[in-house]
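Lab meeting tomorrow. Look over both lines:
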Amino acid sequence: MTPLIAARRYFWGAYSFSTLGRFVHGMALSWVVWTQTHSPLWLSAIALLSALPSLPLAPVAGSMADRFHRHHILLITQTIGCVIAALTAFLSFFGYLNPYNLAVLALIFGIVTSIDGPSMHSMLVETGETVSQAVARQSLVMNVARSIAPMVAVFIIESFSAIWCFAMNAICFIPMIAVMAVVKIPNRTTSEQREESVGVTSRHDLSYSPRSIAAGGVPFYLSDACCSSAACDFSERQRIDELRFYVLRFRFRRGGCCCFDAE
């Protein structure tokens, strides 16, 4: 077994555990919020705080994934995520967990996840697989984890308590932290490709106006920010630009108020 194949297996195994832990954590978080408040407003507010940071942080996180070493980014974000999960379990165990604490923890966890995402997705390709193979494997892991996480969460909550769901998430972060600290996955992108990708991403970030976002440009805006040089090389970025152009032109012909700047 070559070192790259071994690193790939370690990484995918750690990624699977980390993904499962996050889904179980989310299920337990919703359960705790509902049992404490019985308020749909609080439930939706916690979900909003968990997902909201991805909108402003996606461009920054995408540029960071190209500009800095992804091992270091993932090591920091995974460690912070582990600390947040352990802190949530600690507060829940001693009875200090309330909706306001949960809101703050959910916001911080959402920020960490937003920064973690682009670097994690880039590392999926750095392990030696093609983009299509990495996307297929990542989709499989996500769907399997999403399917079994409710059953795991319900079993833990009914058999023990929600505290152990948070503790499980903290434990599931440890394999990824160990892989990022020990296993060295070679970087397949050169410094020239990184600089080129950072420049392209920055121009696209600045080229969007409020009118283009209002016309439906947000999905493309996020795709540009989250697509880093490892997962999407420059030629693939050009194909994404062409696809975006044709979609925006189609919306314009149907009466939308799309505006886009010429390169």
In short: The mean pLDDT is 76. Residues 3-37 form the longest helix (35 residues). The chain is about 80% helix and 0% strand. The CA atoms of residues 193 and 233 lie 8 Å apart.
